[in-house]
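Consider the following assembly input.
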Amino acid sequence: MAQTESELLDNPVAGNPTLILRSPDFHSITEAVAEPIERKTPIGWWFFFFPSLTLLGLLGVAVSWLFWEGIGVWGLNVPVGWAWDITNFVFWIGIGHAGTLISAILFLFRQRWRTSINRAAEAMTIFAVMCALLFPGIHVGRVWVAYWMFPLPNQMGVWPNFRSPLLWDVFAVSVYGTVSILFWYVGLIPDLAMMRDRAKTSARKFAYGFFALGWRGSVRQWHHYESAYLVLAALATPLVLSVHSIVSMDFAVSLLPGWHTTIFPPYFVAGAIFSGFAMVLTLMVICRTAFRLEHIVTLRHFDYMAKIMLVTGSMVGFAYATEFFTAWYSGNPYEFFTFLNRAGGPYAWAYWIMVSCNVISPQVFWFKKARTSIPILFVMSIIINIGMWFERFVIIVTSLHRDFLPSSWGYFTPTIWDISCLLGSFGLFFTMFCLFVRFLPMVATSEVKTVLPQADPHHGSAPEREIKEHRAALPRHAPTPAPGEA
Amino acid sequence: MPLLRPQLPTGPHYGILAEFATPADLFHACERVRDAGFTRWDAHTPFPVHGLEKAMGLRRSLLPWIVLVAGLTGAAGGFALQWWVHASAYPLVISGKPYFAWPAMIPITFELGVLFAAFGAVLGMFGLNRLPMHYHPLFKSKVFERVTDDAFFISIESWDPRFDSSATGKLLESLGARSVELLES
């Protein structure tokens, strides 16, 4: 649909760019988001759901076999005692970080473009944290005593060691999962009420109505609601930074060359945001087309996300370089050997996949053409996620496979069960995401409506009109047209 | 005590519900209703309208104080648990460190503080908003179904001292209401 001149002009009062195209009214936003959930399940949905469910079944088989036989079914052995299990854990928890970044940090920074993508990103966070929690849970070997990770009173009088980063991790990840669910649910309440009010069948009315808690959009309610949302965002912001920092301390607090570095917390957080945005992009490229939400999730949103990926990808590249410099500058022969071995040893192939996917290829995002091209964005998002998986693999496995004694050196090779667990975790993730887009509003309508110009109670007032006329009289140079959609 | 106050008006009528076309109309109407001295009334919108709580004359939410207390409770409880385990219940020398090595206990203290604060925020919001409340007289109105879509309402409850079923309705009409409806209890 063609844009009129006035639509392309940035909002003169708030100075904000036009975020939602085609100048919709409030009702058409409701329709665009709610209608896909209410119509008959489209065939296309099954094409995503069945393969995901199959992979989830594979996960069930792989995990059952693991429980039956023990963690020897994975390719783990001395000296590589952590490999794909912890790689997958760090990979998934990293992906989860983008959701909270979008919903909390961008909220605090008043980045109103987040409203189009925050709901889907938060859902993605929850499913990624579920996948992440799976791996530490199953890698302990004796899963029937996994509850020893928690400080529960027991007949042995034994308590966990609170001074261990591994226990910090248990707390950080489970608190993060819980707070993400709370944040997501609070955001969903007004939209669940919308689904309740639109419901045609009593079953839907009951199901949505039950979880909408009797929300009636009262300003006295919104007043406390907005306060709660702001507080949750303010809590989630330091939380998200703490979670990946603590994950990195699982490594950094050890004495192993390659792990024992102080750069890990910020480096891990940057990498987490980088990979998380890539996953949001993968999902949103598919969803906006499948659900015809091109006017709500616009190329402008993708442009912004690509910029964040360029920044965080470059931070990750800088961290790789800093690690090398520090290893050389420390004068520690073990440390320096570890890094030379990473780039030139038996796992050099993994190292260079990591560098080319994470540092070199995102540089295309310097160009606006790449940032607003759907095929390039989609391919890049997948390349980045491959690269970020390899980053965790490189950190974990290359540091372990060379011990201090050459007699203890080894080489890790995955088994079919390692591969099944990784593929299966994607099955879990995509199954959950398919169910989410089928049954819940994937765009936060009550937030998107607030960024429409007519949501401003002073819209159309005399000062606003004056500014608009003044802007229109100026020579056309400053306002940038919304990319695409022409 | 606000929680002990009856929640819904008694008597034959719940109150009057008036629909407005735009957020701007609602905003000006709210200012007028506030200035007319009504106390037991509310506005209903599909999304939070910027500044409407000021137009209604609402005071700041108490919620941040609830969150502060909950968060401090969580952090203090988490720190106390770790102290009790390592210095009292199960003292164990690890890496030659003191039993009460408090810097190592900061991460979990922080996490538990955030966890309790988040529950304080959500449950506190539910408490202040009296959710869940699955029954409400407003849901009897057919037009009110659009409150989560694109309609803007003011409801004035019948137990407001200034409420009068005909005069209040006329006031709302004069403020530009699209429709005015008297709701049963």
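Chain B has a mean pLDDT of 91. Ask yourself how this observation constrains the way the partners meet.
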